[in-house]
Amino acid sequence: MPVINSAMTGRVKIERVSATTAKWNQAIGAYEGGVPQLLYLGRANIDRIARPTRREFVSDAADNQMTQLMLPFDGNEAEPAPADLRWQSNDMVTILATDSEGNDMILGERLFVRGWFGATEDWAYVLHCGFNAKQDGA
Protein backbone atom coordinates (compact mmCIF):
# COMPACT_ATOMS: atom_id res chain seq x y z
CA MET A 1 0.00 0.00 0.00
CA PRO A 2 2.91 2.50 -0.20
CA VAL A 3 1.43 4.31 -3.22
CA ILE A 4 -1.97 4.73 -1.57
CA ASN A 5 -0.43 5.92 1.70
CA SER A 6 1.82 8.37 -0.12
CA ALA A 7 -1.29 10.00 -1.62
CA MET A 8 -2.53 10.80 1.90
CA THR A 9 -0.85 14.19 2.08
CA GLY A 10 -2.92 15.77 4.85
CA ARG A 11 -2.65 15.35 8.60
CA VAL A 12 -5.54 15.33 11.05
CA LYS A 13 -6.32 14.63 14.65
CA ILE A 14 -9.64 13.19 15.76
CA GLU A 15 -10.88 13.56 19.32
CA ARG A 16 -13.95 12.57 21.30
CA VAL A 17 -15.40 14.20 24.39
CA SER A 18 -17.40 11.62 26.31
CA ALA A 19 -20.52 12.27 28.33
CA THR A 20 -18.71 11.03 31.45
CA THR A 21 -16.22 13.94 31.40
CA ALA A 22 -18.50 16.69 30.07
CA LYS A 23 -21.86 18.28 30.74
CA TRP A 24 -24.64 18.59 28.21
CA ASN A 25 -25.38 22.20 27.21
CA GLN A 26 -28.97 22.32 25.98
CA ALA A 27 -28.52 25.83 24.53
CA ILE A 28 -25.94 24.70 21.98
CA GLY A 29 -26.94 21.04 21.75
CA ALA A 30 -23.48 19.65 22.60
CA TYR A 31 -21.26 18.50 25.46
CA GLU A 32 -18.97 21.09 27.05
CA GLY A 33 -16.06 21.08 29.44
CA GLY A 34 -14.92 17.53 28.97
CA VAL A 35 -11.44 16.20 28.49
CA PRO A 36 -11.02 15.11 24.87
CA GLN A 37 -9.74 11.60 24.16
CA LEU A 38 -7.31 11.46 21.23
CA LEU A 39 -8.55 8.76 18.86
CA TYR A 40 -6.41 9.35 15.78
CA LEU A 41 -3.38 11.38 14.80
CA GLY A 42 -1.77 10.93 11.41
CA ARG A 43 -2.05 10.98 7.64
CA ALA A 44 -5.30 11.57 5.80
CA ASN A 45 -6.69 12.19 2.36
CA ILE A 46 -9.05 15.17 2.62
CA ASP A 47 -11.63 15.76 -0.13
CA ARG A 48 -14.51 18.21 -0.28
CA ILE A 49 -17.69 16.61 -1.54
CA ALA A 50 -20.09 18.74 -3.55
CA ARG A 51 -23.61 18.48 -2.21
CA PRO A 52 -25.96 20.07 -4.71
CA THR A 53 -28.46 22.39 -3.13
CA ARG A 54 -31.03 24.81 -4.47
CA ARG A 55 -30.83 26.98 -1.42
CA GLU A 56 -29.99 30.59 -1.99
CA PHE A 57 -28.21 31.44 1.24
CA VAL A 58 -24.46 31.00 1.69
CA SER A 59 -24.95 29.66 5.21
CA ASP A 60 -27.25 26.91 3.90
CA ALA A 61 -24.65 25.91 1.31
CA ALA A 62 -21.95 25.78 4.01
CA ASP A 63 -24.15 23.61 6.23
CA ASN A 64 -24.58 21.16 3.35
CA GLN A 65 -20.88 20.96 2.41
CA MET A 66 -19.33 17.63 3.37
CA THR A 67 -15.71 16.54 3.63
CA GLN A 68 -14.57 12.97 3.08
CA LEU A 69 -11.57 11.70 5.02
CA MET A 70 -9.66 8.54 4.21
CA LEU A 71 -7.41 7.38 7.05
CA PRO A 72 -4.99 4.47 6.71
CA PHE A 73 -5.60 1.51 9.01
CA ASP A 74 -1.91 1.39 9.86
CA GLY A 75 -1.21 5.11 10.28
CA ASN A 76 -2.45 6.00 13.77
CA GLU A 77 0.24 7.91 15.70
CA ALA A 78 -1.95 8.61 18.76
CA GLU A 79 -0.34 7.69 22.09
CA PRO A 80 -1.90 5.63 23.48
CA ALA A 81 -3.79 4.52 20.38
CA PRO A 82 -7.22 2.98 20.96
CA ALA A 83 -7.12 -0.78 20.42
CA ASP A 84 -10.32 -0.71 18.37
CA LEU A 85 -11.43 2.43 16.54
CA ARG A 86 -15.19 2.83 16.46
CA TRP A 87 -16.05 6.25 15.07
CA GLN A 88 -19.07 8.05 16.47
CA SER A 89 -21.16 10.94 15.26
CA ASN A 90 -19.70 14.24 16.49
CA ASP A 91 -16.12 13.00 16.93
CA MET A 92 -14.14 16.21 16.27
CA VAL A 93 -11.65 16.39 13.40
CA THR A 94 -8.98 19.11 13.26
CA ILE A 95 -7.03 19.57 10.03
CA LEU A 96 -3.37 19.98 10.97
CA ALA A 97 -1.57 20.05 7.62
CA THR A 98 -1.95 19.79 3.87
CA ASP A 99 0.76 19.16 1.34
CA SER A 100 -0.69 21.26 -1.43
CA GLU A 101 -0.23 24.99 -1.75
CA GLY A 102 -3.46 26.93 -1.89
CA ASN A 103 -5.18 24.72 0.67
CA ASP A 104 -3.80 26.65 3.63
CA MET A 105 -7.25 28.07 4.31
CA ILE A 106 -8.42 24.71 5.67
CA LEU A 107 -5.58 24.47 8.22
CA GLY A 108 -7.01 24.42 11.73
CA GLU A 109 -10.52 23.81 10.44
CA ARG A 110 -12.70 21.75 12.77
CA LEU A 111 -15.22 19.29 11.39
CA PHE A 112 -17.47 16.73 13.01
CA VAL A 113 -17.93 13.11 11.95
CA ARG A 114 -21.37 12.54 10.42
CA GLY A 115 -20.91 8.99 9.14
CA TRP A 116 -18.49 6.10 8.97
CA PHE A 117 -18.77 4.32 5.67
CA GLY A 118 -17.62 0.78 5.26
CA ALA A 119 -16.04 -0.31 2.01
CA THR A 120 -14.40 -3.33 0.49
CA GLU A 121 -10.97 -1.74 0.80
CA ASP A 122 -8.97 -3.22 3.63
CA TRP A 123 -6.58 -0.30 3.88
CA ALA A 124 -8.53 2.78 4.96
CA TYR A 125 -11.33 4.17 7.09
CA VAL A 126 -13.75 6.40 5.16
CA LEU A 127 -15.42 9.13 7.22
CA HIS A 128 -17.85 11.83 6.11
CA CYS A 129 -17.61 15.01 8.12
CA GLY A 130 -19.38 18.34 8.23
CA PHE A 131 -19.21 21.71 9.90
CA ASN A 132 -21.55 22.64 12.72
CA ALA A 133 -21.45 26.23 13.99
CA LYS A 134 -23.11 25.27 17.28
CA GLN A 135 -20.50 22.62 18.05
CA ASP A 136 -17.58 24.78 16.93
CA GLY A 137 -18.51 27.57 19.30
CA ALA A 138 -19.12 30.05 16.45
What does this structure look like?
This protein has helices spanning 2-6, 58-64, and strands at 10-16, 23-25, 30-32, 37-49, 66-72, 92-97, 110-117, 124-130. It has 138 residues and is mainly beta. It has one domain: Thrombin, subunit H (Beta Barrel). A 6-stranded antiparallel β-barrel has the order 1-4-5-8-7-6. Strands 2-3 form a two-stranded antiparallel ribbon.
Cα-to-Cα separation, first versus last residue: 39 Å
Query: In the CATH hierarchy, what is the architecture at level 2?
Result: Beta Barrel
Order of helices and strands: HEEEEHEEEE
CA radius of gyration: 15 Å
The strand count comes to: 8
Order of strands in the sheet with most strands: 1-4-5-8-7-6
Low-confidence stretches: 134-138
Structural class: mainly beta
| β-sheet strand percentage | 35-45%
Largest sheet: 6 strands, antiparallel, barrel
The CATH C-level name is Mainly Beta
By DSSP (H or I, 4+ residues per run), the number of helices equals 2
Shape: globular
Kindly list the characteristics that best describe this protein.
single chain; 138 residues; mainly beta; Thrombin, subunit H; two-stranded antiparallel sheet; 2 helices; 9% helix
Secondary-structure blueprint:
Elements: H1 2-6, E1 10-16, E2 23-25, E3 30-32, E4 37-49, H2 58-64, E5 66-72, E6 92-97, E7 110-117, E8 124-130
Antiparallel strand pairs: 1-4, 1-6, 2-3, 4-5, 5-8, 6-7, 7-8
